[in-house]
Amino acid sequence: MALAIRTDLAEEAHALWREGAGETTRLPGVRARDEEAEGFPVTRVEILDEEGETALGKPRGIYLTLDITAFWRREEDAFARVVRAVGELLSPLLPEEGAVLVAGLGNAAMTPDALGPRTLDHLLVTRHLMEVLPGMRSVAGLGAGVLGTTGLEVAEWVRGAAEHVRPAAVVVVDALAARGLDRLCNTIQISDTGLVPGSGVGNHRMALNREGLGVPVLSMGVPTVGDALTGARDILTEAGAGDLSPAALHGQGSRLFVTPDSIDAKIRDLAKVLGYGLDMALQPGVEIEDLEALMA
């Protein structure tokens, strides 16, 4: 029996393909390279065509994975650098002008899924202030609830808001799932391909993409949960149990997911990083000191 590998990260999907095909094998339709932003490692994966889409199971487009492991060392300038890095990566993917709708996805009552809603707490919303702030970009925020508590698909919320705001682009922020436990809360993925909420945990919802909304849809997210079975296999293998058969791990744990310790504090910090990074990308010239004053 095969063990399903769940991940929202294009970088992981690419690494898993290489792992299965051989380290030196080149994947047609996919281009990957390592970069850097503000001293943090960045992996750029570009899915170029249908062959690449099929191989990695993700739509064509650009996927940027920012490794923020060093951020948690709490160096003096780490927060400012990671915020600038997020803004630097996001900015080129945005249209040069026009209103932007930011949708924070997830369940605010469930901490590992609360990243999207809490990011909105740090978003500089300006749409209602354009008459007094003519030099700033129009930004609207939407806290899209989850189907189980609203009876509405997230895509229905976002589509309805977009019809009123008429944005040049939509940015969706959501918690993601990762295959590797070491990536939980340690990576930020930014892409220009939109998002399928819940896909990483096998709970696919309606897609949020350009085809559905009629405008570019960017996504930002951090993996906050991982599959318990693949994590258990990795831990046992590292402990010397050998290459375990996937079938041996199936059973009651097939729907279990794990999340890091101190997830409350990490979500709080990550939401501020993503919110401020969005602000810096959407409002060029705004500095962190300005945001701290405006959000106080």
Can you describe what's shown?
- The protein has 296 residues and is of the alpha/beta class.
- It is 33% helix and 21% strand.
- It has ten helices and nine strands.
- Strands 1, 2, 3, 4, 5, 6, 7, 8 and 9 form a nine-stranded mixed sheet that branches.
- A hairpin with a 2-residue loop joins strand 1 and strand 2 (40-47).
- It is globular and about 65 Å long.
- The N and C termini lie far apart (54 Å).
- The model has no long low-confidence stretch (mean pLDDT 86).
**Rg over alpha carbons:** 19 Å
Tally of contiguous helical segments? 10
Distance between the termini: 54 Å
Strand content: 15-25%
Mean pLDDT: 86
Biggest sheet overview: 9 strands, mixed
| Low-pLDDT residue spans | none
Label the structural class. Answer: alpha/beta
Helical content, roughly? 25-40%
Number of strands: 9
Assign an overall shape. Answer: globular
Order of helical and strand elements? HEEHEHEHEHHEEHEHEHH
Question: What attributes characterize this protein structure?
Answer:
296 residues, 9-stranded mixed sheet, 10 helices, 33% helix, globular
List the helices and strands and how they pair.
Elements: H1 10-21, E1 30-37, E2 40-47, H2 50-56, E3 61-67, H3 78-90, E4 100-105, H4 115-119, E5 139-144, H5 147-150, H6 154-165, E6 169-178, E7 187-191, H7 210-213, E8 217-227, H8 228-241, E9 257-258, H9 263-282, H10 288-295
Helix pairs in contact: 3-9
